[in-house]
Design brief:
This protein has 687 residues and is mostly beta strands. 9% of the residues lie in helices and 42% in strands. It starts with a helix and ends with a helix.
């Protein structure tokens, strides 16, 4: 394959699409001597026979009447350019050798009748070759069949080491068959305008520029030939008929330009590009193109009919760019590494699904090389195509789209030379379910690619039990994805598709969403919150429980009170259940009063261990370190001051009144005692 790679390097320098050459009657001689390119000298080339030692026959004059060159006077040494005159016939017998001096040429204005015979007997073939003992291309100028020539036949002949092998000028129709044309500097056979040569069963090899050139308006029949080791195997600018040829080891097997050529049943192998169709519309049918280091078949600006061809083991099987999209409409029965070409190229699809396919350029079937120069799936002018559950690998691109829109679901991409998705001319694509690696996207101007992730929201209460019917809103900038999302019995929403990454020609944009949750009587931390979307995101909101700070609703004592009973307790009433320990630890009373705490519902009572001291000023404080059962601190602490009541004293008026009362009682008691004593005394006296 090294020779092919050398040709490939030269190809970059010398041609991508060579301009047509025009060889009309006004330009009777092709000037190629300015090309500084040499074909290697084939030291071991022996087209048949052994060069005669016999001095042979010297030829210097034109042939103006019918003449036969027989084997007995061979070799014929042509010293200069000679011409077979109009009406004259030069008949050359089998086995004749013609040796041409440097720069000599054979012009055929009349008829050349050169019939060799038995292909297995080299001694019976007719040889046209240089006179030099170590020949190289351009050692003589070749055979020029002029426009006046009629009925020229070259059969079983060898034409070697010429500048131009056989040139068929305007309007001629020679038969060139069973012959070898080798080591020509420029071409082996040139078909001029309006010429109709038959080139059949020939072996053409080692022509530097082209094996066969079919100029404008020529209509040659090129049949059953073997062409190898040329820059171009065949160049056709015209409506040639190219059938059943074997072309190998060329930079370009066949180059078609501005023609309606019929290319049928040919085999092209081990070239750089096998078939290059350039701004023309040939019929390409039934060909085998294999093992090419570049493109097996390549179309540019073409409207070809392309059917029943096989492309195998090429670096790239087929190249059909958008400017040749009509080829897709005109193709059928083609296979690329065993894959139907119709599975790879699509045009004008609408609302269609491509599902459950595995496209890996035929690797599973033992082939190598990429199937197409576009993509495993190529979409031209397609709208709303769905690609679902596909495995796409080993191609130039996974999906190649021009002026198309499509969606990708549940698919996998790998080992693409350029990108997993390649978008041109207002194409847009959407990817779901983590189908595409966004770094493997190629986006042209006016195109975009959006990768969607999914987000799911979970809402639970403070005990982590599900909350049903919580309201969820998801926003991206000013876009609300839905304002009617709610949680189900499990506390989860459904999966919600949201934009994750947008890819344009200027780069990647990552979306950040805002998620907010509402539910009566509940509060959630970090709500709303920003969420960076990955492939799948679960956002959980947990009810914080009671977040309202407790307050002291009242106390049994009044701040500043002066007559607090010495045996009073201190009662504090709270708005909600409190953390008893935190409240008790936050309670302070002055004057080293000690006591015990007791609780009733949300109310705390402090009972001093002993009575308050008479006429003493006390201060009670409760700091905001006190918390409720949810850990919410007391909204406002307490400062309560009071003064205990004094020891009781009786006023003077009240004392007199009280003393009078006592005196009366004493008098009554004294009278009663006196009466009793009198009675007791009388009874005693009576005795």
């Amino acid at each position: 394959m090294n020779h092919v790679r050398v040709l490939a390097i030269l190809l970059v320098i010398f041609m991508i699409a060579p301009l047509p050459f025009s060889y009309g009657p006004a330009d009777d001689t092709l000037d190629v001597h300015d090309l500084d390119i040499q074909v290697p000298v084939a030291q071991d080339f022996d087209p048949g026979g052994t060069r005669a030692i016999d001095p042979g026959t010297i030829i210097t004059d034109d042939i103006l009447s019918s003449t036969t060159w027989d084997i007995g006077r061979s070799p014929y040494k042509v010293q200069n350019t000679i011409t077979i005159g109009i009406g004259a016939v030069l008949t050359i017998e089998p086995g004749v050798v013609m040796l041409f001096s440097l720069g000599a040429k054979l012009n055929v204005a009349g008829t050349l009748d050169a019939h060799g015979r038995d292909p297995l007997d080299p001694q019976s073939r007719i040889q046209f070759k240089p006179a030099t003992p170590n020949p190289a291309s351009r050692d003589w100028d070749g055979i020029d069949i002029l426009s006046t020539s009629k009925n020229t036949v070259l059969d079983y002949v060898d034409v070697t080491f010429a500048t131009e092998g056989i040139k068929c000028s305007n309007g001629t129709s020679p038969v060139i068959s069973n012959s070898t044309i080798a080591y020509s500097h420029f071409f082996a056979v040139y078909c001029g305008a309006n010429s109709t040569p038959m080139i059949n069963n020939c072996h053409i090899n080692n022509s530097l520029y082209a094996g066969i050139i079919c100029d404008n308006l020529s209509m040659p029949t090129i049949l059953n030939n073997r062409i190898n080791t040329c820059w171009h195997g065949i160049i056709a600018y015209s409506d040639a008929l190219i059938l059943n040829n074997n072309i190998e080891v060329c930079a370009v097997g066949m180059l078609l330009w501005n023609s309606s050529t019929i290319i049928r049943d040919n085999t092209v192998s081990h070239c750089y590009d096998g078939l290059f169709v350039f701004y023309c519309s040939p019929l390409v049918e039934g060909n085998l193109i294999r093992s090419c280091d570049g493109n097996g078949t390549r179309f540019i600006g073409s409207n070809s009919t392309f059917r029943n061809n096989r492309m195998e083991f090429n670096d790239v099987g087929v190249d059909i760019p958008y400017d040749s999209k009509n080829v897709i409409m005109n193709m059928s029965g083609n296979s690329i590494n065993g894959i139907p070409a119709g599975d790879l190229y699509h045009i004008g699809l609408k609302d269609t699904t491509i599902k459950d396919v595995n496209l890996n350029s035929g690797l599973d079937n033992g082939f190598y090389g990429f199937a197409t120069n576009q993509g495993s799936i190529t979409l031209y002018d397609c709208k709303n195509v769905t690609i679902d559950n596909c495995t796409i690998s080993f191609n130039m691109n996974g999906i190649y789209a021009v002026n198309s829109s499509f969606n990708i679901y549940n698919s996998a991409f790998s080992n693409s030379r350029h990108g997993d998705v390649n978008l041109f001319e207002t194409s847009n694509a959407r990817s779901y379910n983590n189908s595409v690696n966004e770094s493997r996207i190629i986006v042209g101007e006016s195109c975009y690619f959006v990768s969607y992730g999914s987000i799911r929201v979970q809402v639970q209460n403070f005990t982590e039990h599900p909350v049903q019917n919580a309201t969820v809103e998801i926003r991206e900038l000013s876009t609300i994805y839905s304002n009617n999302i709610s949680t189900g019995a499990s506390g989860f929403t459904d999966f919600i598709l949201v934009q994750k990454i947008r890819v344009t020609s200027v780069g990647l944009f990552y979306y950040t969403l805002e998620v907010e949750v509402w539910n009566p009587g509940m509060a959630f931390n970090n709500n709303p919150r920003s969420v960076e979307i990955a492939d799948e995101v679960l956002v959980t909101f947990t009810d914080l429980g009671d977040i309202t700070p407790p307050v002291i609703t009242s106390t049994n004592l009044i701040h500043g009170q002066l007559d607090v009973n010495l045996n009073s307790t201190i009662i504090i009433y709270f708005s909600e259940a409190m953390n008893k320990t935190s409240v008790e630890e936050s309670f302070i009373i002055s004057n080293n009063v000690t006591g015990v705490f007791s609780w009733s519902d949300n109310n705390m009572t402090f009972t001093p261990s002993s009575s308050f001291t008479n006429l003493t000023y006390y201060v009670v404080t409760l700091s905001d370190d006190a918390t409720d059962l949810w850990g919410n601190h007391l909204k406002d602490g307490l400062v309560l001051s009071f003064t205990s009541e004094p020891i009781r004293t009786v006023p003077i008026s009240e004392s007199i009144e009280e003393a009078s009362g006592y005196l009366g009682v004493l008098i009554v008691i004294a009278i009663i005692a006196t009466v009793i004593m009198v009675l007791i005394g009388k009874r005693y006296l009576d005795k």
